[in-house]
Design a protein that fits this description.
This protein is mostly beta strands. The chain has a single domain (21-79), classed as Beta Barrel (Elongation Factor Tu (Ef-tu), domain 3), CATH 2.40.30.10. It has no helices and six strands. The protein has strands spanning 21-23, 38-41, 44-47, 55-57, 64-67, 77-79. Strand 4 and strand 5 form a beta hairpin. The radius of gyration is 15 Å and the shape is globular. It comes from Cordyceps takaomontana. It holds the Pfam family GTP-eEF1A_C. This is Elongation factor 1-alpha.
Length: 80
């Protein structure tokens, strides 16, 4: 998404890290801590790193099904 803010009063700032919900669509093998995908945002390609897999979640309900999973694979949704 995009970020909008007041440039004169508390402007938005870059983040060193953030948590994201990801859904693994089509990936061979398993994804674990330290995985480094490239994010595509409009025309930018930005390298990032999954420093920690926080929880695996049910794609339909959004509820946590496993804390600190060792890996995720195709079809899984997770907070990283």
């Amino acid at each position: 998404g995009n970020v909008a803010g007041d440039s004169k009063n508390d402007p938005p700032m870059g983040a060193a890290s953030f948590n994201a919900q990801v859904i693994v669509i089509n990936h061979p093998g398993q994804i674990g801590n330290g995985y480094a995908p490239v994010l595509d945002c409009h025309t930018a390609h930005i390298a990032c790193k999954f420093s920690e897999l926080l929880e695996k979640i049910d794609r339909r309900t959004g509820k946590s099904v496993e804390n600190n999973p060792k890996f995720i694979k195709s079809g899984d949704s997770a907070i990283v």
